[in-house]
Structure formats: structure tokens, C-alpha cells
Amino acid sequence: MSDILLQIDGKEVEAREGMTILQAAQSAGIIIPTLCHHEKLDSYGVCRICTVEVETRGRTNLVAACLYPVEKNLVVRTRSEMVDKVRKMILELLLAHAPEAPALQDLAREYGAQRARFEKEPSFCILCGLCVRYCAEVKKKNAIAFVDQGAKREINFIPEIASQECWSCKECFPLCPTSYLQAAYFLIEGLAFPPPSASEE
Amino acid sequence: MNGVNEVNGVKGKVRTGAMDNDRIDRIIDKYQGKPSSVIQLLMEIQHENHWLAREVLVKVSKRLEVPLSEVLHIVTFYKTFSLIPKGRHEIHVCTGTSCHARGGQRVLDRVQDLIGIKPGETSSDLKFSLEAGNCCSLGPEIVIDGKHHGRIEPDKVEDVLKDYH
Amino acid sequence: MPRINSATELQALRKGLLSKRDPNKPCVAVCAGTGCLGPGSDNVISAFEREVEKHALKGKVDMRATGCHGFCETGPNVVIYPEEICYTRVRVEDVPEIVSQTVIGKKVIDRLVYTDPHTGEKSVHQSEIPFYKKQMRHLIGNNSKIDPKSLDDYLALGGYSALSRALFEMSPEQVLEEIKKANLRGRGGGGFPAGLKWETARNAPGEKKYVIVNGHEGEPGAFMDRALFTGNPHSVLEGLIIGAYAIGAHEGFIYTRHDSAQLRNNIAIALAQAEQYGLLGENILGSGFNFNVEVHLDVGIFVSGESSALMRSIEGKAPEPRPKYIRTSVSGIWERPSNLNNVETWANVPQIISKGYAWYTRIGTEGSKGTKLISLSGNIVNTGVVEVPMGTTLREIVYDIGGGIPNGKKLKAVHFGGPMGGSIPASLLDTPLDFDALAKLGAPIGAGGMFVMDEDTNMVEVARFFLNFLTNESCGKCVPCREGIRQMLKILTQISEGKGREGDIELLEELCEVAGAASLCALGKTASGPVLSTLGYFREEYEANIREKKRPA
To answer: For residue C287, what is the DSSP state?
Structure first.
């Protein structure tokens, strides 16, 4: 594994081939905010809050740090006018869903995001997917699914599986940044789990 | 008039009734052992059966060894798949750009008024299901059971629908 | 039909077919494209078949249900060969007269002949009709001459001679060079040089490579890929096989719409026939080159036309895009090099190989070579599928070919690229059809859907229409797109309902900027196109509404 030298915020960072900018930054003690990232899971790249500016081959681009692979002589800026604008807007869009979430509130303070810029949305899930992915990749039970698409996208516990697996597990619960997950679980347990006397095959 | 279908209360003429498990099984047999064909399999069942019951999804998941979460993700990803029984006749009203410019919305309004359902719904007598979306070029257009009725005007809609039972 | 096992056998077969075809034999070609099926061309076809029976003409007159002729506005369209007499708006009641008067009697029926609505001038032959006259129909022109279900028809016109030349007279590298020198640019919306894409796939590490036809055509207002693929599936297939040869791929995928039974059937028939004749499968034409194709249907959503989403769908997963930090031509389906091109792009390949890059590059502009299929629709007299050389001005397309704006209205704007494109005002109508020229104006060609709008059009509503489309079609994975577009739509709806507020435009612009910069895929990135272009050229409409609190024109 050859060493790759890149520059992050003016600092020279040594990284290994196959690393992402986020991993390289973390190894050098440089903080890039994340919401949908987890060290035990494959990078998902959907919250886009880890967006950073990169300069390569004379061009500047905005990319997701958790996905972009390191390159020799890559110049990375983890803060800039555009980067901050993007992060502020993402937070404002998410605060419309979950204004009480501590992770969002902390970041909102740092980036000057306004809590009520957008009208309050009914669902307080921010669709980071940590629950779905943890259950699929780590527990390999696939008890939670993404359903519907676009603005209607949501997470659903699958009653057939969840009724068997979740009570003794619940490892995904602390991952949820907004506690929507716990609420969803108890709702589905009450509404759709088969009664305990029914035998499942 | 409540045009939304109700599955549990309807008996007798319901097209779905007890699903032909053998037929479904035979379709699944074709794709067994090929998890990457799950979309094609689901489309084939959807085309033949016009909807996908929960038991079918569970069966597909088991036989093709694709997690049920992935199957649910696929079938809810777009309105092509129906998780509730559809009507005997599928009406598709074009709402693409050119149909929209030529009054496609008025045709859709007329269809909705006549049948009493909105796009994505099925009439309570299970006669018609309605979808809106893109079709093609010559609008306004409605497609019923695959047959195109192009250049249609709102006041002609009733005549066209009368032919379907 | 015995397999063709060499280039000479192909030539002999073609000669044999031509010798059995009398060029003077009458042929009735009825358009069975969706645009003509709508007004009942299928009934017209049955009526012709009955009349031919009645007059005992079977065998003396050919009947052909063809693909889209292109002039959707005047369908059902019928062309009678060899005279090439074109009848428009043909009804079932007209058929007996056509057979007795024109087919048998060789007389022209005046009332069925095309009449120019402006000048009153009649055009008897298809090539004289102004709509067709100004076009350069290299790709779509053959539609009216062949039965899409007949490989023999395609062969009789010279089909598969390009494949034969590629396999027997050129090396894969030479084929690649030819496409590179022709500067064939992708016709699906990206406009990326196909030759470079092919080269990347060819040079990418890995034994197994794939080629893919993107037949999804999700752009609303675009219907030319369907017209071409349904009407002449072999033209696309031939291009695909040549491309596979150049890249070194032995497996291909055709990704097409699930909602057109006619398209699905014609593709299936074309593949079966090609295999039967030895033009597809193992040891093609005896050259030693193997290539097989699988057909996959889409699930119906716009985003599945995005190349990385499409590849996920082929793998059996929900069609959600992935960021393109690693090119799909290097790591695509199952992480193998995958070259994806649009239907029209593939259809350009055979003619480039047959006639050479020098011939091809003489057509078009400096940066955009060849012809382009355009789906002309909206407030225009002649809707349909049009094919023009790149460089043709928009004015020529709208007025000379399109016949101008109906009802005496004035042109306001022209929109390209659907929900990911932009609108340009009538003042810029002398812009040439060119990838770069249009992109610079904020209205990238996209797939080629050209939507014409008259003076009564509400431009805020146009932007709102496209955003509404995208909110239903976004996969919903990433925040800037899912949340951003939804908020943009809310603002536009407010404005178009007369409830716009101060600061709305600025917020809209900020949302556009963030979505454009930070979205995961092209859908989110270009969703702001219609909004930004209408804000750029028609800002007064937005402002007037907010100021006056009423709905714009």
C-alpha cells in the first residue's frame, strides 16, 4: 500500500491508497462533520454535510469527503465560503424535520443555521440510514427497510423480522440522531407485530 | 363517493381472491438462484397478476435469497408495482409536457370525475385503476389496457370508458 | 434461415434478397408508431389488409406496418411506394378508395394529400412535404421503409454491412479510432465523447466488460429514442455489437421501458432473428467474436435512466444512483468496466463505420458532429420526431420544419433538456443546435426533447411543472435533492398561486446553488436548470407576481 501525500487545510497529510478524504482527515486530527457516517458501516454519502472543496488537475469541485478517494497532490479545503453555505443549508433543511436533535443543534450553532428557516415537516427522521445499514451490514438481519422514494422516502421496520429479532437486540437504537427510530419501533410493535400466540414458520 | 378500494371487505368478484400459487411458483422457478433477476421476476408477476401480495414478496425473498428489506425497497420504489389489488382495466392518463400543454389535466379531471378515483387508486368495484404519468407524443392521450386513445377531448372520455366492463 | 458464416455469405444473402424484391412492386407502408396508433392506425392497417384480400392482391401488393415516420401531427400516416405518395390523417373509411384509386389505379387522392396550413400548397410525395424536406433523416428515414419485425428488410437496405466491415476489415483499435475521429458525442444528455468513453472501458483492467444500451428515455417530452428503437431496432443492435467488438465486451444489456409492449416485442424479435442469422451470439458471422445480450426492463422511474442507477437496477437492486468519483466505464455493473450509451448514440455507429469519419464530420458544427433526433412538441404546428444536422438554427426547426406556432400566437421560449435543462427566449432563436452553444445559454440539449412555448405560457409554471416532476422521480437518498427540490417546489407553487413573498427569489437561488453543488447525482445537480434559466430570462414574471400578489400571465 503506497503512501499518498495530499494537502488538507494547508496541512500535509499522509494517507494510504484506498482511503477516503474523511479517513485521511481523521487520521490527521482534522474534523469534518458527518451525520450518516459510521466506522462500522460502508460509507453512504447521503447527508452531504461532509462536503469539502477539492482541487485536482486545475479544477475545483465539491465532493463528499466520506466517499472521495485520496489522490496524490490533492488539495482539500474542509471550510470555505461554498462549503459553509452548503452545510448551513443542509442543516436548515434537516432542522425542519428534527429541530430538537442534539447533533443538528450543535452543528447549527457552528454554522449559523436557522432553526425555523423552513416550515416544520411532519416526519422527524432525517433518513441518514444508519439503522437500515447497521441491521443489514453488521447484524445481517435486514429488519428495517427503506421504502418509497423521493420526498416520500421513509424507514419501515419489517414486522415479520422485527418481531423476532429486535427486542433482544436494539443495537441500532443509540445510533439514531433524532430518536425517530425508537418511536417507529414502538409504533410498529403496537400496530403490526403478530400476537405472541401465533407461531411463525 | 369513496373510490378507494377496500381489500378485506370485498368478496366474490375480486379478481385476486386466492392467488394462483402454482402460477406464481412457476414464474419464480424460472429465476431461482439468480438474485440479480429479482426486478425482472417481480415485474413478470406484476404484469401477470396485476399486483403483489405480501406473501408473494416473502416467497420471492426466500426463494431468490434477497433480503425482504431489499424486495420491499424495490417494490415501493415506484408506482409500477402495486401492493394492493388493481382494477380489471388500467387507465393511464398522460401528463407529460406536451400533453400538459394541450390540456392533459382537463382530461385527467374528467376521468377522475367519472370514475371517482385519483391517480394511484382503484375504483371500489375493482373495475378501473388510474395512473398518471408520461406516455408519448400526441396529446392529450389516455391508454387503457395498453390501447392508445390519442387526441382525446374531455367530452369524449365518457364514450371511451363506456366500452369497458 | 441458415446461419451466415462469413462476410461473403452476408453479401450473397443481401444480393439474393434484393434480386427477389421488385422495386416497382406497390407497397403500402402504414405508420404503426405510438403517435399514429393513438388516432387508430392499427384499424387502418387492418382495413388495408382486408381490402388487399378483397381485391385478391395478396402477393402483388406489400403491406407494411412500420415504425414512426416522424410526422406525428398528421397521423395516421400512409406512404405508398414506389411513388412515395404520402397520405395524412388517413381514416378507416378512406382505405377502400386508396386501394382502388392509388394502389391499383395509380391516381392521387387530392383530399388526403398534405396541405400546408400557411400557403395552401399541396405536397404529394413525402420528400416534398416541408416538414420532411428540411430534415436530414439518416437515422429515422429508414423507418418508413422497413418492417421492424423483419431482419430481411434491414439487410436489404444494407444493414449489418458495417458490422461485417468492422469484424473482417478492421481491428478493434481501428474501430475505436474511427469513432474517436468522428467525434461522436453522447445523445442521451451528457454529450460526452463516446470514443473516449469506449477507450476508458477498453483500457480499464479486467477481463469481463459490458456494453449497455440506455433505452430508458425518461425525459418528459422526449420520444425519439422510442420511435427509433421500435421502428428500427437492428440499427441500434448493430451499433452495439460493433461497440462491443471495439471495447472487448462479450456481454451486453439493453435497458428499456417496461410500458411499451410494442417496443419490448420488437426488440425481442430483433434479438431472436439476429441470433438465428448468426449476427449475434457465438462466433458472429464466423469471425470468432462472441457477444450476447440480455434485456432488462426499468421499474418506471425517471432516475433509473441515470447511468449508475441503471446499473444498480441491472444488478437487481433498487435504481439509486451512486456518486461518480470512480467512472462507471472503469467500475460499473458488479464493479466491472461498463460502457453505457444512449439508443441514438449506438444507432450512429454503423453509418460512421460504413461511410467513415470524414463523411460524418462534414455534417454538423465544429464541436457537434452528425445529425440529432429532436422530439418536437408543445405549441407548435408540426409535432413529431425530427432529424436535423447539428448546427441547424432553432429558428429553422421551429418555422421551416415545425411550421411555426399555431393559432397565430407568438413564440415565447423554447425548452431543451426537460427537467434538467432550461428555456431560452425567442430572441435567441438563431442559436444553432449545438451541444456547447446551447449549454452556454443554460439550456443544454439533453436528450433532444424540444418543447415550444407560445406567448400565453407562464414561465413560472413551466419551472414548477418540471420541479414537480422531479420531486416524484428523485430517489430521495441525499438531502440537497430530496429536501432542496421539495422546498423549491413549495416556493414556486406559492409564487404561481399569487402567494409569493419578498425574499422568495433569493431563497430559491440559494437552494438552487446548494442542490447544484452538493447533490449526489445529476438529477439533483441539474434540477435547478429550469428554475435558473427562467429566472435568468424571465425574472420579471417572478418579480411581478411577488410584487403584485397575483398569478402571472
So the answer is: S
